[in-house]
Amino acid sequence: MEYKIKNFPITMFAIVMGLSGFTIVLQKFAEHNWLPNWSYLSMLVTVSLIFVVIAVFYILKFIMFREAVLADFKHRIRINFFSTISISFLLLSVAFHPVSNSVSEILWWIGAILHAYLMLHTIRFWIQHNFEIHTFSPAWFIPVVGNIVIPVMGVEFLPVSISFFFFSVGAFFWIVLFTIFLNRVVFHDQMPQKFIPTLFILLAPPAVGFIAYYKITMQWDLLGIFLLNIAYFFAFLLVFLWKSFRNIKFFISWWAFIFPLDALTIASVLAYSISGQIAYLYASWVGIIVVVLFVLFVSYKTIEKLVLGEVCVEEE
């Protein structure tokens, strides 16, 4: 048991990210009477329990094997996944808001403060260490572009100017890191197989950016539509890249890549609510079908790994 706790991966919080986003999708569909409300409430209970279990195990790891946690915190790849903890709090804040405003606010404050720290720490880590271009992957987007998630509920609890600050930082780093990403994939060697699923992260910044932008401005304008269209573009691009995803090895971190699909679906529902355009309604239903299929597939692969004892083992 101690061996399992020592090797309990930080990427387990990606499960909470993926399922929290899925919970929000169900809530939005229930809000429009497209799905029964119990589907949202049952998933909310499920993801809350999973979050508590994962958090308890990682706290035990910190208490019993602090050096292992610190090693992850200094790892060039795993450091980016620590922000999945703060983003999980932020997404749970959104998921809980229809049920309890006070719980939602508590979760948001924890997530926002923690994410601000992790974001600044990660940028400092990047600056103070030497990196080769081949070590870059879209996982780098998680700690800095994750700032865009903060305004989604932040506008409810603080002045809009605070939310706009985090939106600005997230949008700025989205542009910077995407430029690096294009340089990486076009002018250098192909990404290792284990990095291929991180391409899904490209969906999240414009999709969440559209949601956050609307929450801040309450305007359906050209910039909002631009962000949403860029998200759809990346979705089409991923379809054209489907051959790249064949025969790749499954990792628990795949859960983090369900959230971008959640985000695009939620953005489509919001766009339909604002504009009433039927195309966004179709996009919403296509989105939830794809999300459900991905959740079922990744859940099956996760259970399979648990049964085979391939979870919580020493990583390379």
What features would you describe in this structure?
The chain has 316 residues and is mainly alpha-helical. The chain has a single domain, classed as Glycosyltransferase. It has 13 helices and no strands. Helix 8 (150-157) packs antiparallel against helix 9.
Element layout with pairings:
Layout: H1 2-6, H2 13-31, H3 37-64, H4 66-73, H5 83-96, H6 101-128, H7 141-145, H8 150-157, H9 160-187, H10 204-217, H11 222-240, H12 258-275, H13 278-308
Helix pairs in contact: 2-3, 2-5, 2-12, 2-13, 3-4, 5-6, 6-8, 8-9, 8-10, 9-10, 10-11, 10-12, 12-13
Concise overview:
The chain has 316 residues and is mostly helical. It has one domain: Glycosyltransferase (Alpha/alpha barrel).
Q: Judging by the overall fold, what is the CATH architecture?
A: Alpha/alpha barrel
Sheet having the most strands: none
CATH class: Mainly Alpha
Q: Report the sheet-strand fraction.
A: under 5%
Q: Helical element count?
A: 13
The averaged pLDDT comes out at: 90
Number of strands: 0
Radius of gyration: 19 Å
CATH topology type: Glycosyltransferase
Distance between the termini: 20 Å
Q: Describe the oligomeric state of these chains in a short phrase.
A: single chain
Shape: globular
* Low-confidence segments: none
Q: How many discrete structural domains?
A: 1
What portion of residues is helical? Answer: over 70%
CATH superfamily: Voltage-dependent anion channel
Order of helices and strands: HHHHHHHHHHHHH
